[in-house]
Design goal:
Elements lengths: L1 E8 L5 H12 L4 E6 L4 E8 L3 E8 L3 H5 L1 H11 L3 E8 L4 H7 L4 E6 L5 E7 L1 H6 L5 E6 L15 E8 L2 H8 L11 E5 L6 E9 L2 E4 L1
Parallel strand pairs: 1-4, 5-8, 9-10
Antiparallel strand pairs: 1-5, 2-3, 3-4, 6-7, 7-8, 9-11, 11-12
Pfam family, one: Glyoxalase_3
InterPro entries: Glyas_Bleomycin-R_OHBP_Dase (IPR029068), Glyoxalase-like_dom (IPR025870)
Organism: Arthrobacter cavernae
C-alpha cells in the first residue's frame, strides 16, 4: 500500500489552461496523458519523484462520463470551480477492499499513440464522492514501465497534504493505519468546515516549496 497520485479537476477554463498554471508554478513540463474511454475523462500528467504523479483531469461530453462514478466525480468538482478532487493509493491486491465495500473493482485503461496501453483496476470512487477525504484504490497491471511517474525523471517531490477530515476516518476506510501509504508525505489534518477533502498539496521544487 503506497501513495500513488493526486487528482486535480480542471477549472472552468479547461484542461490545458489549468495544467499550464500548475506546471508553471512547479517549474516543470506537463505531458498529455490521454482519454479514459471507460470513464469519459482525459488527463494531463506531471511526474513527481518517488514513483508519484499529479494528474489534471477533465470530463468529456461522452455517455461514459454520465455512467462512470469517476466521470461523475470529475464533472461535479469542475462544476464547483475545479480543484483537488482526491488522492489515490496503489495496492497489490484489491480483493480485501472488494469484500469490505461489497462491490467489484472496475477496469481502467488509456492508450498511447504508439499502441501501448496503460491498464489498471480501481475501486472506491463512490466512497470519495460521498466523503472526499478518503482515497480511492488502484491496482496497476501490465508493464510497470508505463506508470505515469516514469514519463520523465522528476526532481519535484510531493512533501505534504492538508486534508479537511480525520486520520481515524481514513484509517477506518483503508483498514490499515493511514500513515502506511503516507509514510513519506506529511499530512496536516484539519476539522472540516463544510466539505471534507484535500485543501492543498505542497511540493518541493527547484525554487523551494510551492503550495497549490
Amino acid at each position: 500500500m503506497r501513495m500513488d497520485h493526486v487528482s486535480y479537476a480542471c477549472e472552468r477554463d479547461g484542461l490545458l489552461a489549468t495544467t499550464e498554471r500548475i506546471s508553471a508554478a512547479l517549474g516543470v513540463d506537463a505531458v498529455r496523458g490521454g482519454v479514459h474511454p471507460r470513464f469519459g475523462t482525459r488527463n494531463m500528467i506531471i511526474p513527481l519523484a518517488d514513483d508519484k504523479y499529479l494528474e489534471v483531469v477533465e470530463v468529456l461530453d461522452h455517455p461514459a462520463s454520465d455512467k462512470a462514478p469517476f466521470g461523475q466525480a470529475v464533472r461535479a468538482r469542475s462544476a464547483a470551480g475545479g480543484g483537488w478532487m482526491g488522492w489515490c493509493v496503489a495496492v497489490d491486491d484489491l480483493a480485501p477492499f472488494e469484500e469490505r465495500l461489497g462491490r467489484s473493482a472496475v477496469p481502467g485503461n488509456r492508450k498511447f499513440p504508439d499502441g501501448r496501453e496503460l491498464v489498471w483496476q480501481q475501486i472506491g470512487i463512490l466512497g470519495l464522492i460521498a466523503d472526499p477525504q478518503v482515497p480511492y484504490l488502484l491496482k496497476w497491471e501490465g508493464d510497470p514501465g508505463l506508470h505515469p511517474s516514469k514519463i520523465y525523471a522528476s526532481d519535484v517531490k510531493m512533501s505534504s497534504l492538508t486534508i479537511a477530515g480525520s486520520a481515524e476516518r481514513v484509517t477506518e476506510w483503508l483498514g490499515e493505519p493511514v500513515e502506511k501509504p503516507l509514510e513519506d508525505v506529511a499530512v496536516l489534518w484539519m476539522a472540516p468546515h463544510g466539505t471534507p477533502g484535500i485543501m492543498s498539496v505542497t511540493f518541493e521544487t527547484a525554487t523551494g516549496a510551492v503550495t497549490i
